[in-house]
Amino acid sequence: MTQETLTTFFGWMTVLNIGFLAFTSIAMVTMMDWVTGIHGRMFRMEPADVRAAYFRYLAQYKVMTFIFALGPYLALRLM
User: Fold this and answer.
1) Domain tally for the chain?
2) 14, 74 Cβ separation under 8 angstroms
3) Concatenated DSSP letters for the chain?
């Protein structure tokens, strides 16, 4: 693979991951009570625990996107 191909790959991977993160964040904000109720019943969790799990999920997904998609893309762009 060439550097140009890898740069394009990581660029699109970053765009898709950030798009998914934005979609998921908007969905969680707009449908929090409904989704919390469903997942709370499915996993027998309290609503506060479900909300904490959502926050952890979004935070971890954001960090992983920055490390494994945006980081390599920026490194390749700077080369």
Assistant:
1) 1
2) no
3) --HHHHHHHHHHHHHHHHHHHHHHHHHHHHSHHHHHHHHHHHHT--HHHHHHHHHHHHHHHHHHHIIIIIHHHHHHHH-
d(CA 7, CA 75): 9
Q: How confident is the model at residue 55 (pLDDT cuts 50, 70, 90)?
A: very high
Domain that holds residue 71: 3-78
Q: Is the pTM of this model over 0.85?
A: yes
Q: What average pLDDT does the segment 21-35 reach?
A: 94
pLDDT reading at 1 higher than 90: no
Looking up tokens 């490194």, which residue turns up?
75
